[in-house]
Amino acid sequence: MAPVPVDTAFEAALALASPVEGTERVALPAAPGRILATDSPAAGPYPAFDHAAVDGYALRAADGAEAPVVLPCTDLSLPGSRPAPLAPGRAARIFTGAPIPDGADSVVMQEACAAVTLPDGTPAVRIGTAAAAGGNLRRAGEDMRPGEALLTAGSLLDARHLAAAAAADIGALEVRRRVRVAYLSCGNELLPPGAPAAAGIPAARDSNRPMLAALLARPWIEARDLGIQPDQPERLQAALAEAAGWADLVVTSGGMSVGETDHLPEAVARLEGEWAALQVAMKPGKPLGLGRLGAAVLLGLPGNPYAAFVGAVLFGGLVLRRLSGQPAVRPPGRRALLAEAVSRRPGRTDFLPVALVPAQGEGPPRLQVLGPGGSARLAPLLAADGLAEVAGDLAAAPAGTPVRFHSFAELFGTG
Ligand SMILES: Nc1nc2c(c(=O)[nH]1)N[C@H]1C(S)=C(S)[C@@H](COP(=O)(O)OP(=O)(O)OC[C@H]3O[C@@H](n4cnc5c(N)ncnc54)[C@H](O)[C@@H]3O)O[C@H]1N2
Ligand code: MOO
Known about the structure:
Layout: H1 6-16, E1 23-27, E2 51-52, E3 56-59, E4 69-72, E5 75-77, E6 92-94, E7 106-109, E8 113-117, E9 123-127, E10 137-138, H2 159-167, E11 172-176, E12 179-186, E13 190-191, E14 204-205, H3 208-216, E15 221-229, H4 233-244, E16 249-253, H5 264-270, E17 274-279, E18 282-283, E19 287-293, E20 296-301, H6 305-324, E21 334-338, E22 349-357, E23 366-369, E24 386-390, E25 402-407, H7 408-411
Parallel strand pairs: 5-6, 12-15, 12-16, 13-14, 16-20, 18-22, 21-23
Antiparallel strand pairs: 1-11, 2-10, 3-6, 3-7, 4-9, 8-9, 17-19, 19-20, 21-25, 22-23, 22-24, 24-25
Helix pairs in contact: 1-6, 3-6, 4-5
Bound molecules: ligand LQZAQKY5 and molybdate ion.
């Protein structure tokens, strides 16, 4: 089969997924990290009422237009109380956040005022600077108005959304149900870290499940670990059937290649699922399985740990975003330049672990490629800031070659 370009593989992955149906209403404390299901307008005005922006004195601007002026001041407005209407020609002591008394339309900061006493003993204030209409006060609804568009469906709810929702008197939000993801590793040679190996049998530590568990540890995802499956079609079939009965997405790693021990395609076929074993023109991550089992999307990642990581963040991330109802587009990255030459042949798109070189002046960020390449290498990732995508059609990649830089924040969906 001819290798498919990376963009074709992204499109094929996207075409398999559609947003999960089902929503739930959650109170704000349970909403962070969930995906908003419906556009949510402001429920109340923010600010909720006209209030003072500073500690000082409320008055009619007209009464303080020409400073200095002394105004009787016997009224008080405290936060959390309702002040009496303010009579003309008078001032009211007011504190930050307290309601503006009816009649007042200006606040003068206390630093520009002095408390004085009139000859008859009445408390008064000497206003030292001219008052401006609307000065030092915040009007109800000047930031958000009830009914006005506020939160957009598909948003991953973070601190900004929560602050705005609460301020606009939204107590609960309609979010999409969690995306259910089941994942497993394939391979007789695999053992979990720390598990004792059988005497004399070389064992490889399963790093792909912990990697996937970490990527899936998001509030909008419900993940189920289906363990390590041996290279036996029946066992794989049983695990996949269990996964597909529950999950929206099933992710496997290993068993994707062409050897006799690679049983995944057969297990999917026996379950009457669809399965396309793509050869993607990328390095690493050439073998990629895309399919469907019942209602679940199937994503088959290569076993090699770096290849599995790249496939998981690129294709897994895209499918997950689509399933979750978030905007889902091919990871865009941003334009950056290779700081040094990379040896390559035209044909496959490279995904390389890179570190941002500290900026020197203007221009796109420059990237240092880390460690020797190889689809099984993990150590170079540890010092990386993201992945560089070197376009497949480039015959060579000298220093200064423009690439797409995918930050880990972008790839992990946290940026
Ligand atoms: N004759 C060919 N052989 C291979 C080809 C090919 O085109 N022709 N492609 C190579 C490429 S590229 C890749 S990538 C791998 C993909 O193989 P599989 O997906 O079938 O993966 P395995 O064979 O099961 O394992 C490969 C490698 O990775 C280790 N592994 C597997 N799972 C895990 C895990 N969960 N945690 C850590 N390490 C894992 C496994 O022990 C092997 O070392 O095929 C090439 N071969
Ligand atoms: O495509 Mo494989 O992932 O190079 O090792």
